[in-house]
Design brief:
Layout (H helix, E strand, L loop, with lengths): L1 H22 L7 H15 L3 H4 L3 H8 L9 H13 L7 E3 L8 H8 L6 H9 L4 E3 L2 E6 L4 E6 L8 H10 L5 E5 L8 H8 L8 E7 L12 E4 L13 E5 L6 H9 L5 E5 L9 E5 L5 E5 L1 E4 L14 E2 L4 H5 L4 H15 L2
Parallel strand pairs: 4-5, 5-8, 8-9, 9-13
Antiparallel strand pairs: 1-11, 2-3, 3-4, 6-7, 6-12, 10-11
Length: 344
C-alpha cells in the first residue's frame, strides 16, 4: 500500500513539474527587447570603440528614448541602423529580410573621393587594347618599362596560372604597378594567393588579438601572421608599387598592411579606409542579424591601422596633370620604379 502511494505521489510530482515546464514562456520580443539585445551584444563584442572614438554608453542614452512599443519593424530597423552607424565602421551592418544598414561615413569615403578617374586609366594607360587575365586588367605602360595591373575586387579569383602568366608577360619590365584604389575588399583566400607569389623569409606581417569576453579589454594574447611560403611558380622580385586610397577597404587595407613587410614593395597614394579585422555574423532575438568585427589587428611595430593604412608616399591626383589626360599617382609610381632600378 505504501509502495502504491509512493508511486502515485511520484506521478503527481512529475505531472506538476511537467505542467510547470509547459507554462514557462519565453520573454516577449518587443522593439525595446531587440534594442537592448543589439546594444548589449555590441557592447560585449565590438573591439574598436576606443580607436573609433565612440562612447557606447552615450549612444545608448541618445537612442533609447527613440524606441517605442508601437513602432513598426521598418521604424525599428531605421533607428537601430542609425545607432550602428554611430560607430563609423563599414564592417558593422544590421540585416533583415527587407534591408541592410550601412555606415554613412564609410560610404562617403568609398563612394566619394576615389583618388582615381577611371576614364583616364583606360584612355591613357590600359588603352582600349588592354588585356584581361582572371580578375586583372593590364597593359604595359611608361614606354613598355612598367606593367600596370588593375585589380578591382578581392572577390575576383586569383589563380596561380594568372600570376604566372602576368609575371612572365612583364618579366622584361623594370617593375609592376598594382592599382587597388577602387578595390573595396573581398576574399582573404585571394590575398594569400598573391602573397605566395612574393619573396618570403617568413617575416611577420601583422598580429591579431581576438575578443574573448564582455569587457572592453577582454582579448586573447596576440597571435602572429607570417608571410606564407613562396609557391613553386614565378616569384616577383622586382619593384612592386601598390596604389591605394580612400576606396581601398577591408582586404585591400589588410593587404596594404602586409605589403609594409616586403622589401620590394612600396605603397603610393592616400590612406585606405581601414577595416583590417575579421568579421562575424550574429543573430538577434527577433530573427534579424548583424555583422561586427571581433578582433584587433596590429602592424609588427604594434600600430593599429583599423582606421586606415597610410602609404609610404602620399600623392594626390593633380588637377593640372588630369587636364593633360594623365594620372599623377601612376606617373609618380613609374618614376619611383625608375629611381629604384637606377639605385641598383
Amino acid at each position: 500500500m505504501k509502495r502504491i502511494r509512493f508511486i502515485q505521489l511520484l506521478s503527481l510530482t512529475l505531472l506538476a513539474t511537467s505542467c510547470e515546464s509547459v507554462l514557462i514562456r519565453e520573454p516577449a520580443v518587443t522593439p525595446r527587447s531587440t534594442f537592448e539585445d543589439l546594444w548589449k551584444q555590441m557592447q560585449e563584442r565590438y573591439p574598436h570603440f576606443e580607436i573609433k572614438g565612440v562612447d557606447w554608453e552615450q549612444v545608448y542614452r541618445e537612442y533609447s528614448p527613440q524606441i517605442k512599443d508601437n513602432m513598426s519593424q521598418s521604424e525599428l530597423f531605421n533607428v537601430l541602423g542609425k545607432m550602428l552607424g554611430e560607430i563609423h565602421d563599414g564592417h558593422v551592418n544590421l540585416m533583415s529580410s527587407f534591408d541592410i544598414s550601412h555606415s554613412p561615413t564609410i560610404n562617403e569615403s568609398l563612394l566619394g573621393n576615389r583618388n582615381v578617374v577611371e576614364s583616364v586609366l583606360y584612355e591613357e594607360y590600359l588603352t582600349y587594347t588592354y588585356h584581361t587575365t582572371g580578375g586583372f586588367i593590364h597593359n604595359a605602360i611608361h614606354n613598355g618599362k612598367v606593367g600596370y595591373l588593375l585589380y578591382s575586387s578581392w572577390m575576383n579569383e586569383i589563380r596561380k596560372s594568372d600570376l604566372a602568366y602576368l609575371y612572365s608577360k612583364y618579366s622584361d619590365c623594370n617593375g609592376l604597378i598594382l592599382d587597388l584604389r577602387s578595390n573595396t575588399g573581398g576574399a582573404l583566400y585571394n590575398l594569400r594567393m598573391f602573397l605566395q607569389s612574393l619573396p618570403s623569409n617568413g617575416q611577420l606581417l601583422y598580429t591579431t588579438k581576438v575578443k574573448t569576453g564582455p569587457g572592453y579589454e577582454d582579448f586573447s594574447e596576440a597571435t602572429g601572421a607570417y608571410a606564407p611560403k613562396t609557391w613553386d611558380g614565378p616569384v616577383w622580385r622586382k619593384p612592386l608599387v601598390v596604389l591605394i586610397g580612400p576606396r581601398s577597404y577591408s582586404c585591400s587595407s589588410l593587404f596594404s598592411l602586409c605589403m609594409k613587410s616586403y622589401d620590394n614593395v612600396r605603397l603610393v597614394g592616400n590612406t585606405t579606409s581601414g577595416g583590417t579585422s575579421v568579421v562575424y555574423t550574429f543573430g538577434l532575438n527577433n530573427g534579424w542579424a548583424y555583422r561586427t568585427p571581433m578582433s584587433r589587428t596590429f602592424s609588427p611595430d604594434g600600430h593599429n591601422y583599423e582606421n586606415g593604412v597610410p602609404p609610404d608616399y602620399f600623392v594626390e591626383l593633380d588637377p593640372l596633370v588630369l587636364m593633360d589626360g594623365k594620372d599623377s599617382i601612376i606617373e609618380f609610381a613609374c618614376r619611383l620604379i625608375d629611381s629604384t632600378v637606377r639605385q641598383k
